[in-house]
């Protein structure tokens, strides 16, 4: 998993509430177990017309938002089913940080497992950043200091220490396990030496 420390990028404004995981990545694209290749279908039903052509009024189809790495969204972002494909699609597009007043719990947790920083801020602060994003301003995120800035305003956000540590060091569930590889190997060797019959019976 790619580490997250600081990010300064164009933020795309998406002032919609209750954006569910089916809107983020529709069900017809869930046949893959690969984490790559989903970015082109991110927000497919509101990003493209029925004939596959881009909707020119959708934010990610407009400059400078085509290369956005930050998304400023409405409350209850990521509601609906628990599909992990939703953060996969965001990440594959290039989104590393989502800012909203609230998130669905499962989506919120899945973001951390995939290297995306979900930031919860009060509605008033989200509104300020939404306007900055609509004006095409860059937003800077500093995870170490837990701050966000649009160049004028500076906001702080909360994050659990364990999740912060994992993001800064790029540790997903597999990475956390590999951190203990030496201890696991030592335990296996000790087990084979002390109780070899266990492995033989297996």
UniProtKB/TrEMBL annotation:
Entry annotated with the keyword Protein biosynthesis: no
EC number of the protein: 4.2.1.33
Enzyme class, spelled out: lyase
GO molecular function terms noted in the UniProt entry: 3-isopropylmalate dehydratase activity
Entry's Gene Ontology BP terms: L-leucine biosynthetic process
Residue ranges the record marks as coiled coil: none
Family listed: Belongs to the LeuD family. LeuD type 1 subfamily.
Protein name (database record): 3-isopropylmalate dehydratase small subunit
Organism: Micavibrio aeruginosavorus
Gene coding for it: leuD
């Amino acid at each position: 998993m790619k580490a997250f420390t600081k990010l300064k990028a164009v933020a795309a404004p998406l002032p919609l509430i209750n954006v569910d995981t089916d809107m983020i990545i529709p069900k017809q694209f869930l046949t893959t177990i690969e984490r790559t290749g989903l970015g082109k279908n991110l927000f497919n039903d509101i990003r493209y017309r029925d004939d596959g052509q881009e909707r020119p009024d959708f934010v990610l189809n407009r400059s400078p938002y085509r290369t956005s790495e930050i998304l400023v969204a409405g409350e209850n972002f990521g509601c609906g089913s628990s599909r992990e494909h939703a953060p996969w699609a965001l990440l594959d597009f290039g989104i590393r940080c989502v800012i909203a007043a609230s998130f669905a719990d499962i989506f919120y947790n899945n973001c951390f497992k995939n290297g995306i920083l979900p930031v919860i801020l009060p509605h008033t602060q989200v509104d300020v950043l939404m306007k900055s994003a609509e004006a095409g301003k860059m937003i800077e995120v500093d995870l170490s200091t837990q701050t966000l800035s649009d160049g004028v305003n500076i906001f702080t956000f909360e994050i659990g220490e364990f999740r912060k540590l994992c993001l800064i060091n790029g540790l997903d569930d597999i990475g956390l396990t590999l951190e203990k590889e030496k201890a696991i190997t030592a335990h296996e060797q000790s087990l084979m030496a002390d109780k070899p019959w266990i492995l033989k019976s297996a």
